[in-house]
Design a protein that fits this description.
By secondary structure, this protein is mainly alpha-helical. The chain has one domain. 69% of the residues lie in helices and 0% in strands. The chain has 6 helices and no strands. The chain is elongated and about 45 Å long. The mean pLDDT is 89.
Length: 141
């Protein structure tokens, strides 16, 4: 019998890992993959889906909530916003392929929202980067 709670937990952890919360989905993905109880394709699928949905949340924050950036509770620091902004200006949309990179990935997806990158282009580029990363993690196991 397949344990669906593992897939659900992976989806949630991947979502949280893609937001500004300090969370790592790779540990959960690795544990589930090594258990032998889960299909590797579905692990890849749910990890990628959760991570892309988290990135889309950051995009929405950048698109609609930037006016609150001076508030103490705002989830992205000014320093991270500035770093991501500079990188985005220098390299453009292609930086979204690196949305999976720790520290810079979350602010990049946020800045994409600030710059009003069309959601379809955003989603495709982020999916390619994050999907490739999770595929590599699974492959290296």
């Amino acid at each position: 019998m397949i344990e669906y709670s593992g897939y659900t937990g992976l989806l949630i952890s991947a979502f949280l890992a893609a937001t500004i919360l300090p969370f790592s989905s790779e540990v959960i993905l690795t544990g589930l993959a090594l258990s032998g109880e889960y299909d590797l394709f579905w692990l890849w699928f749910f990890a990628t889906l959760g991570n892309v949905l988290g990135a889309m949340t950051n995009w929405g924050l950048g698109r609609y909530l930037l006016r609150f950036q001076e508030k103490r509770w705002f989830p992205v620091s000014q320093k991270d916003i500035h770093k991501a902004h500079e990188m985005f200006l220098k390299y453009g949309l292609w930086t979204l392929l690196f949305a999976w990179v720790p520290v810079i990935g979350d602010p990049l997806t946020f800045i994409a929202g600030v710059f009003r990158v069309p959601i379809l282009i955003f989603t495709v580029l982020v999916f390619l980067g994050k999907g490739t990363r999770y595929a590599l993690v699974i492959y290296l196991l």
